[in-house]
Specification:
Layout: E1 3-6, E2 9-12, H1 20-23, H2 27-54, H3 65-70, E3 74-75, H4 77-81, E4 89-93, H5 97-102, E5 104-105, E6 109-110, H6 116-123, E7 132-136, H7 140-152, E8 156-160, H8 163-169, E9 174-175
Parallel strand pairs: 3-8, 4-6, 4-7, 7-8
Antiparallel strand pairs: 1-2, 5-9
Length: 185
Amino acid sequence: MQSRATGGTTVPEPAAGVAPAVARVGPRVVRRTLLQALVLVAAAFVAGYASNALRPTLEWGGSDPLLLKHGIDGLSAEEAALYQGDPTALYLDVRPAEEYARERIQGAISFAADDFTSGYDGVRDFLGPEVKLIAYGDDTLPAVRAAEFLKERGHTAWVLEGGWQAWKKAQLPTESGAAPVGDAP
């Protein structure tokens, strides 16, 4: 193989029989490679967007990863509904107060995620060791945090899997309006 000098560096000459286009990468090859990369990125973006658009319509078949990660037990809406009317069960709505007043699980009390301590101070005298607490919200994480908060204080606490939306979808009992005075269990 021969070499040639170009601006202070030595560039090897292509071997005999090698096409010049293979030996030297020209602007057309660079443009084509960039275009291919752009097409691949665009295809990946479209596939990701389509996947995310379809995700809310897919049925969830297992435990929420947040529950598993935090070691909190979950209850399906149907399982949680079995505790309706049970004097040893209490539903805790961790959504903002406005949403709680608009509509909530029948018999639930507000346990707003922005201030668990105040919510706990309002109910702790009613929470004996036999009381089962079921936290729910629009999102899983605030309910998981509420359950962790309560477990740290020695209570039995679960999270409603699928939260408020799962309860509504199952068409289980709800109520609305301001909470009655003395809204403690």
